[in-house]
Amino acid sequence: MDKYLLAVLVDNKPGVLTHIASLISRRAFNIESISAGYTEEKAVTRINIVVSVASENELNQVVTQLSKLIDVVKIVNLTQFDSITRELVLIKVRATKESRAQIIDVVNIFRARIVDVGVENVVVELTGDTKKIDALSELLSDYGIIEIARTGAIALSRGPVPVKHM
């Protein structure tokens, strides 16, 4: 299965995100991640969706079905373009007196930040691409991950042209 990142511009109305997610899941396509937020235009919401599909034909089916929704303004497959993709992760890790210094070293190597410290744990924050976040998670798993909260991927194309004009 290949992963594709779609930037979907939609009318900023209640229920639109639900319609999009349910349309994709009804077609038995897997949503790897989904994130939504305001854009530079108040009336438009940007939804970033990472979908797993077996072929470009299946991807085209997803795009075709989404484009039929009334509230969808524009769909761009950012996988086709040179783009900047980021995720945010918060990782709560067990941290004993003995392991705390080692955890700090790992955090510093990844240019992550410790955003909370408890008696028995620390919370690490990292923004980066999927591979970087996966690598940090793997290293911190040796210390005992208590909990992970991870956003979906967001992306912007490189250069001056915004998605709405692609």
TrEMBL record:
Catalytic EC class: transferase
A single cellular component GO annotation: cytosol
GO MF entries: acetolactate synthase activity; acetolactate synthase regulator activity
Superkingdom field: Bacteria
PROSITE patterns: ACT
Catalytic activity line of the entry: 2 pyruvate + H(+) = (2S)-2-acetolactate + CO2
GO biological process: isoleucine biosynthetic process; L-valine biosynthetic process
Keyword Transferase found: yes
Record function comment: Catalyzes the conversion of 2 pyruvate molecules into acetolactate in the first common step of the biosynthetic pathway of the branched-amino acids such as leucine, isoleucine, and valine.
NCBIfam families: acolac_sm (TIGR00119), PRK11895.1 (NF008864)
Subunit structure: Dimer of large and small chains.
Protein name, as recorded: Acetolactate synthase small subunit
Name of the coding gene: ilvN
